[in-house]
Amino acid sequence: MAKTVLVINSGSSSIKYQLVDLESGEGLASGLVEKIGEPSDGHYKHEFNGEKHELEEPIPDHEVGLKRVLGFFEEYGPSLKDAGIVAVGHRVVQGGSVFPKPALVTDKTIAQVKNLAVLAPLHNGPEATGAEVMRSLLPDTPQVFVFDSSFFFQLPKSASTYALNKEIADQYHIRRYGAHGTSHEYVGSQVPDLIGKPAEGLRQIVLHIGNGASASAQISGKPVETSMGLTPLEGLVMGGRTGDIDPAVVFHLIRNAHMNVDELDTLFNKHSGLMGMTGHGDMREIHKMIADGNEDAKLALEVYVHRIVSYIGNYTAQMGGVDVITFTAGVGENDEIVRRMVAHKLEPFGVKLDEKKNDTRSKEPRIISEPDSSVTLCIIPTNEELSIARQSATIAEQGDSYGNTFTK
Prior knowledge:
Helix content is about 40%, strand content about 20%. The chain has helices at about 60-75, 105-115, 125-135, 155-160, 165-170, 180-195, 250-255, 260-270, 275-280, 285-290, 295-320, 330-335, 335-345, 355-360, 385-400, and strands at about 5-10, 15-20, 25-35, 40-50, 50-55, 85-90, 105, 145, 205-210, 215-220, 220-225, 325-330, 365, 375-380. Strands 5-4-3-2-1-6-8-7 form an 8-stranded mixed β-sheet, sandwiched between helices. Strands 11-10-9-12-14-13 form a 6-stranded mixed β-sheet, sandwiched between helices. Helix 2 packs antiparallel against helix 3, helix 10 (about 285-290) packs across helix 11 and helix 11 (about 295-320) packs across helix 13. The mean pLDDT is about 95.
């Protein structure tokens, strides 16, 4: 009998889901719930067996949305009763120092995830709510929290510690937690097989670049650096986020623009990055604007690439060299222009891009550098859902490391 895991990603006004087959690694069905709690009608999309089913109606809260999702599985397939579901895995952005590993969903862990919302206010609350609702809807199925920050909890203290007053940092739990950890861990684990080298001693940089963007440095599959920090704001330039910026900009805007905390939060997280520089957060639109001669878009792309190359140089120095650089996520997997610009910046160090391979579209993991390149360049499509599904199934079968147990 097939074994599957339903992976849930709950946002403040949306829910993404995918039913993953553990043996094949394929997504059997997937969907999206949008505009939860908004005045206008919400939107559902459920895809299974090549068919797409959509519905528009009010969605007052997550419970209503998830009930409808379970109804879609029964109405349009596949039936969860017949799909061999062994767990529901919930993606959570911030596990703080409380959760270095996945955890079973219990009253206690739900409360802990909610408490950690102080470190991820846009994410943890809705993610805890989604788990709470699914636990009530599927009481006989183990529910598991899988944390984006867990992989980077292994960072050396020299990489995770900010040079902030120690008492303040300790009291308010301020350190580099990182994000996109599930993706970085998954992609990094695929590299050794793709390039035919052992994981032991392998120095690699993973570039998860999309609307959200982050970089990691890994040695022997363990993280030694990452670009996101206390929150996902730090690091690379993103669709709507600034990435690295002098924190004194905050003081400057408070004093001179009289902006408050919420206004600054919105400015830095939603109205900056590519969006702030060009009016568009989608890299495809940036390329169209450049083709039309837009100088702002041209500069935005240059800033985007400049920041990526800066992190590559930093991480190469920190690791004492680099063997592999891997591109993943929306831009990393699909944008040959960005990859080419990054690779060309690295040419003085012996990096050689295979232009034909770089320009070939494919959904398969592949090497895009020349055989004699000093660094192997790869593209590996990320699969966070599969990683969450596998971790959730393990916890459902073996229990977590915190002493929590699943009871029906």
